[in-house]
Amino acid sequence: MKTSLSMGALLLASLPLVGHAEPRCKGDRPIGPGITRQGGYSFQYQSTTRAGYCVGYQLRNNPGKVWTPAIWKQGDEILIDANLPECAMERDCEWVSVVKTIADPTSSGGTVLSYGINKDEFKDHPAAYVIQPPERRSAAVGELQTVIEGLVADDDHRKIRIGVRVTSAVKPPGPEGYRLVYFFERLGDSVDLSVLASPSENRPDAVALVLDSGGSEAFANAMRKVSQSVLTSGRSYAQVEVEARGLPMIRSRLLAIYRGSKPIASTTARLYVPAE
Amino acid sequence: MVELIGVPLTLGSVAVTAIEVLVPHAITTSHTLFAWQLVGAIMGAVLGYLRTSFALLGKGRPACLAASARFVFVGIAVYVLFVLGPLVVAAPSFAERYLWARRIREVLLAPVLLLNALEFFGVAVAAFCLTSSIVALSSRLADPNARLYQRDARG
To answer: Are B110 and A155 an interchain contact pair (Cβ–Cβ within 8 Å)?
Structure first.
């Protein structure tokens, strides 16, 4: 069925997403923390899940260790891609974590943790909770949330505290079809950040969140509508809606946080997208 | 060209180029960096082999030996300063010990392309110089007519 899309992008600055629930995932069945040590690098990793409902991944540098670029992947899916900041000997180092609510069951499986120069200098294969591929149509599996938060470092080794939650939901179908809702929320004492359609729009020293459109024109247009919104402590969320005629699909899209034009943290987010 | 320089020296150039690329692998195992070094080494070695052959053809043995010595000195200096040096400084165990090394490491790794490019040019220049130094050792290259004189003398 050919899906025709009509675009309705609303920026609701003062009202939260209708029916938006508080995050329901606090992973409490950890695998780890484990420690990887190669080439002078040393940091911890951990994976958590709650009853196949959500899954979390955390990385933390060890005391006394220098700036460490690292990427944790499961196949093509990026679990966490971040630069772990240098950690002073006398201070407890902070985690950077990603939590995803999922519609598919998890299982324990192999992943690849690469780090060092070019993020491919050393490799480890820790066991972690893995997620099944999401490629299917579904409009009734609830909200899909992805959270990135913690302390990361940019390419200049400056420490940046980030905290964002991206929620993707489907409103019940009406006369015009489904309404896909994307909700962007700044968490805790995260730096202020913009929501942009492309990293090229970002100012040199500013922090921005970019959600990859994956080639979907409708999705890209929706992101342009909310582009340049700034999430601050005073106004911590932004929302955009897309109308879709047919059943939406669950797809993986890269969710990345940039400082200037360089990524400082990213993960693969599960989203409802219009079927095209 | 290979006939003029000689098979042993040509193989020697290849061996030196291979060593240049393999030695950094003992310090860092980044596949991306290895690829940059490999391409740089091949380009530098080929350019050195061809360019020096033409430049030193018929210049005489003393000039070629002097050129070889200069190339060895420059090649080793470039290799130590711009290939091995940055890798040692970028290694976490070294950077943790010295604050100055940590600051240099931050500069080297700030844009990751900087270290890759530095290694590429460092290995390329070193390969150019070290290959040239081996090529310059060829007596046939120094005086190609000497073989003709010997043939004529033997009758």
So the answer is: yes
Cβ atoms < 10 Å from Cβ of A50? 18
Q: How far is B19 from chain A (nearest CA, A)?
A: 20
Read off the pLDDT of residues A235-276 as tens digits, 9 standing for 90 and up: 788 888 887 777 788 888 899 999 998 899 999 998 888 876
Q: Residue A94 contacts by C-beta under 8 Å, 6 or more apart in sequence?
A: A60, A150, A151
Q: Does ipTM surpass 0.90 in this model?
A: no
> What's the gap in Å between the CA of A188 and the closest CA on chain B?
28
pTM listed for this prediction: 0.82
Query: Nearest Cα to A265, choosing from A121, A74, A57?
Result: A57
Name A162's bridge partners: A150
Q: What is the tens place of the pLDDT at every residue in A217-235?
A: 777 777 787 777 788 877 7
Dist. CA A31–CA A49, nearest whole Å: 9
Q: Which residues are CB-neighbours of A241 under 8 A, at least 6 positions away?
A: A8, A9, A10, A179, A180, A181, A182, A222
